[in-house]
Known about the structure:
Phosphorylase Kinase, domain 1; two-stranded antiparallel ribbon; globular; Transferase(Phosphotransferase), domain 1; disordered N terminus; 7 helices; 20% strand
Amino acid sequence: xxxxxxxxxxxxxxxxxxxxxxxxxxxxxxxxxxxxxxxxxxxxxxxxxxxxxxxxxxxxxxxxxxxxxxxxxxxxxxxxxxxxxxxxxxxxxxxxxxxxxxxxxxxxxxxxxxxxxxxxxxxxxxxxxxxxxxxxxxxxxxxxxxxxxxxxxxxxxxxxxxxxxxxxxxxxxxxxxxxxxxxxxxxxxxxxxxxxxxxxxxxxxxxxxxxxxxxxxxxxxxxxxxxxxxxxxxx
Length: 235
């Protein structure tokens, strides 16, 4: 009886879930990670993100698509990550590793004091995380310019430095992957984050720095890439 309302809720999203994913969503519910899905947060080719309810609080459930995702692109990132050496280029294995990687990266970033959503669970292609926001989700900074742009930008650099000291590079940092929550940056989307012993880590770091400098410039801040890199990698 207890599962019937949740099954009814799933009918709203029936075009999103395959049978395998639906089964594992039920498993995460039974394990107490969330009670029900509330509404879609974003629907994309690679993943579908939902707001979920857990008691009186919200959580986020991110589901990587098993059929329409670009798993070859995922594999191109994973094959250079020493943590996933030996991974075979097979769709499901790649997608599962991609979700696991995001969970693992979020844990490491969180432990290092980087402002990121707390990850609660990962099961195959499903990731359950902390909801960032109050009554509504915190917006991406590309759509919500900070009240104090300079302070926000300097905080972004501090978060990048903490991440670097933890041995990680985000590898996809931009205004689309930084939330503005109470005028403070929160980094999201960590599936592409990679350790420093990845041969491409330096390339990814330089790209992140270029992206955030472009973002800062839109706010009227002229931080050079050299300045930002020195702050990020310096002692």
